[in-house]
Amino acid sequence: MKATETIEPDELVYELLDLEHILDAIYDVLRNMEYVKADGSRNVELDRVAALHRITRSQVAWIARATRHFDIPGAYVPDSRKEQANA
């Protein structure tokens, strides 16, 4: 998908789920990394990345749950003015 493409609400649900799966895979990698350096000090940069990832992962999961109603047949009624303008 290109940044300039329009996306339908029902497609958004699946794009967010894909993003959530990607973030879960990254979480698995981060969870298994060594957070302590060879000298015994903490890897602060990795801690920061892991913290930012945790925030992103929880926000994407929240947004994905909040948009699931778009995937229910008949729940979303498109704006007919947009459809007429595109015709």
Characterize the structure shown:
The chain is mainly α. 62% of the residues lie in helices and 0% in strands. The chain is built from 3 helices and no strands. The chain has helices at 9-31, 44-67, 80-86. The protein is elongated. 1% of the residues are buried.
Distance, first to last CA: 22 Å
Low-confidence stretches: none
Shape, please? elongated
What is the N-to-C order of secondary-structure elements (H for helix, E for strand)? Answer: HHH
Number of strands: 0
Helix content: 55-70%
What's the story with the biggest beta sheet? none
Number of helices: 3
> What class, by secondary structure content?
mainly alpha
Average pLDDT, rounded to a whole number, is 85
Radius of gyration: 19 Å
Tell me the strand percentage band.
Answer: under 5%
Short structural description:
The protein has 87 residues and is mainly α.
Descriptive terms for the model:
87 residues; mainly alpha
Describe how the helices and strands are arranged.
Elements lengths: L8 H23 L12 H24 L12 H7 L1
